[in-house]
Design goal:
By secondary structure, this protein is an alpha+beta fold. The chain has one domain. Helix content is about 35%, strand content about 30%. It has five helices and eight strands. The chain has an eight-stranded antiparallel sheet. Helix 3 crosses helix 4 and helix 3 packs across helix 5. The longest helix is centred in the last third of the chain and has 20 residues. It is globular.
């Protein structure tokens, strides 16, 4: 398995969001956590979250409710004299066009990988604005607190809305 210094950035997350939910008129809400992005696009919206943001326990909790990562495919190339470099990103799962971005990939022991080229997947989670957002905000009170600050609702009122949405739409899926 490859370990990477690749990080999901705002432009990559925006490209994913627009590929999933429509281009044009896209706006985003800032979250002070690396790898968490919220977009409202022309057709839909929601959270785009870097899979590396979650702990193993959170990933297990997400899977319990049927949330699994989508995969951003990263193409890497190398030579015997250089580190592994990111040569492109495939947004095929998100209906978008790939662009090259700088990043390096290392093996777990930090030595360079002795391969010429290949693809690796990078986990990305999507939480759509209709009801999936409640899963993320129920699981992470720190994200809930930022969302609460972004809405013109009372703390109890917003928290109750998250709880009700989670129980009505997420918990019911599991039954």
């Amino acid at each position: 398995m490859l370990v990477s210094d690749f990080k999901l950035t705002h432009p990559i997350a925006r490209n994913i969001a627009e590929g999933m939910w429509g281009r044009g008129g896209t706006s985003s809400t800032h979250y002070p956590f690396p790898g968490i992005f919220y977009f409202s696009c022309s057709g839909h919206g929601g959270y785009i979250v870097d899979g590396m943001f979650f702990s193993p326990q959170e990933i297990e909790f997400l899977a319990k409710y049927g949330f699994y990562p989508e995969h951003l495919y990263l193409r890497y190339v190398t030579s015997l004299k250089s580190p592994v470099e990111l040569a492109g990103i495939s947004y095929s799962n998100f209906s978008c066009y790939a662009k090259s971005l700088p990043a390096k990939f290392y093996s777990k022991n930090q030595s360079f990988i002795d391969v010429r080229w290949g693809w690796v997947y990078y986990p990305i989670y999507l939480f759509e604005e209709d009801c999936d957002w409640a899963m993320l905000e129920m699981m992470r009170p720190d994200i809930l607190a930022v969302s609460l600050a972004n809405h013109n609702m009372l703390n109890d009122e917003y928290s109750q809305m998250v709880f009700n949405t989670f129980n009505r739409w997420i918990v019911r899926r599991d039954q």
